[in-house]
Amino acid sequence: MGNARRALLCPPGVYRPQADTWLLARAMIEAGIPHGAHALDVFTGTGALAIAAAKIGAATVTAVDISRRAAAAAWLNLRLRGITAEIHCGDFASVFGRRHYDLVVANPPYVPAPHDTAVGAARAWDAGADGRALLDRLCALVPSALSPRGTALIVHSAMSDPDKTLDALRERGLKAAVVARATVPFGPVLRARAAWLSATERIEPTSDTEDLVVIRGDRIRK
After folding, report:
1. Per-residue pLDDT at 79
2. What pTM did the predictor assign?
3. How do beta strands 60-65 and 86-89 pair?
4. What is residue 51's predicted lDDT score, i.e. its pLDDT?
5. Is residue 171 part of a domain?
6. pLDDT-based confidence at 86, cuts 50/70/90?
7. What average pLDDT does the segment 71-90 reach?
8. Mean model confidence pLDDT for the chain
9. How far apart are alpha carbons 132 and 4 in whole angstroms?
10. What's the whole-number mean pLDDT along residues 87-92?
11. Using 50, 70 and 90 to split pLDDT, how confident is the model at 1?
12. CATH classification of the domain holding 195
């Protein structure tokens, strides 16, 4: 994956693939998604996960991001690799309800923030006081978008309440579990926000690492 990471074009203001991206990519590789799947990459950024979906054999790839720069970067990164994909620029909910997918992967904004409205590049990570401003919407939409044997893979921080994600997916008929974990050092955003996170009891005062989880949800055939 190292060469693929370095080769990705990432314009200013677009979320640069990092530990959460690659944790989710590994989970996707290990998920046993059948060749010929129809895949959806939500919050695509540079298109790194859309590329990974194509590499494991997805027959069609759809990707969405609210950022025009991100959508353009994803289109170009996919095109440079000879991957045909459907790229949408807009709110992620706009791609739901169009068709069913065998694979939905999502790296949504999930960082708790002391403000409700994210602007500029921060739209890629800021997610309200509990980190779930978009996660809750995503969990509500994903189950109905899955094919009868479809799989969803969602990565986010342990600060954003993985149990709530699990419960939301299960309440909507999916079999859900945490399938991957990683502990990573705080990046610039969390380092700058550490005092607020500590004061609001979201982290311990001495914390300087973040726990990431990948949650898998599978459609249960009836």
Report:
1. 95
2. 0.94
3. parallel
4. 97
5. yes
6. very high
7. 96
8. 93
9. 30
10. 96
11. very low
12. 3.40.50.150
Q: How far apart are CA 56 and CA 172, in angstroms?
A: 27
Classify residue 88: in a domain, yes or no.
yes
Q: Give me the amino acid identity at 45.
A: G
How many domains, the chain? 1
Q: Do the beta carbons of residue 155 and residue 213 sit within 8 Å? A: yes
Residue 218, beta-bridge partner list: 151, 175
Q: Is residue 12 in some structural domain?
A: no
Amino acid at 72: A
The sign of the CA dihedral 93, 163, 61, 8 is positive
Q: Residue 148's pLDDT is what?
A: 93
| Domain span including residue 153 | 19-219
